[in-house]
Amino acid sequence: MTELKDFRIFADLKEKELQKLQENSRKIKYGRGEIIFPEGAPAFGLYLVFDGMVKLVKRSMRAKSQILKIVGPGELLGETTLFDKGSYNAYAKTLSPAVIGFIERGDFFYFLERHPKTIFRMYSRLSEELKAFQNKLAERSYSSSKERLARLILHLGKSGVELSRAELAEMAGVSSKTAIRTLSELESRGIIAIESRKIKILREEYLQKIMEPFSMDLNPNLII
After folding, report:
1. Helices (H), the chain
2. For the residues of 11-68, what is the DSSP string, one character each?
3. Burial of 123 (0-12, 13-18, 19+ CB in 10 A)
4. Do 54 and 93 touch, CB atoms closer than 8 A?
5. Which of 40, 60, 63, 71 is most buried by a 10 A CB count?
6. Residue 190 and residue 208: Cα distance in Å, rounded?
7. Element at 76 (helix H, strand E)
């Protein structure tokens, strides 16, 4: 299982400092399909993913869903509302059994005041994620559904995450019918093989060829 020292934002901390941070955090075990925090709920602190995979989902007024990102061990949740003291603009739900740490905002801010390097590491991480979201927004304008799904399949293949066809559609920003049709085409051509929710990549070079290059080199445990 991932430890605090494995989180990039805490990489420069000494053992004594990590121990102090550990004392201010608590770990909670979740089963698959459990809500970590609901959309619209007040944000009280920072969540740390020690084990398992979690999806962050935004729901529209018409009850349509969009998976914003998937995070795994060593990644954070709730960081975007940490500084504005607002409410969560999306909900977090486990994709597998998970162990999630939680640090209350006040305790974390007190820690940051005494360890400013952690602030810079956190802003660096937020900057990378913002650029990735900007790239994804641009991708919606000039990439086809097949290109978007190809990139997503490649990322999922590296991380080992399994998504349903509906979840694939939500993450790629396409309709379920389009996702099913595209996956069926790729499978019939021997590009991928599908067993239940698991997608096995058979011809990675083909997917690399048809997808628009994504300029951000993100952690495999962060899928955007």
Report:
1. 15-23, 105-114, 116-142, 145-159, 165-172, 176-188, 204-210
2. TT--HHHHHHHHHTEEEEEE-TT-EEE-TTPBP-EEEEEEES-EEEEEE-TTS-EEEE
3. exposed
4. yes
5. 71
6. 15
7. strand 76-77
Q: Which residue has the tokens 């459990």?
A: 34
Report whether 118 contacts 11 (CB < 8 A). no
Backbone angles phi, psi at 91, to 5 degrees: -110, 155
Positions of the chain with pLDDT under 70: 212-217
Q: Let me know: does 92 contact 18? Beta carbons within 8 Å.
A: no
Tell me what pLDDT residue 161 has: 86
Task: Using alpha carbons, select from 40, 94, 88, 39 the residue that is nearest to residue 72.
Answer: 94
Cα(132)–Cα(114) distance, integer angstroms: 30
> What are the pLDDT digits (tens) for 30-59?
999 999 999 999 999 999 999 999 999 998
| Per-residue pLDDT tens over the stretch 190-206 | 999 988 778 889 999 99
Domains of the chain as residue ranges with CATH:
4-135 (2.60.120.10), 143-215 (1.10.10.10)
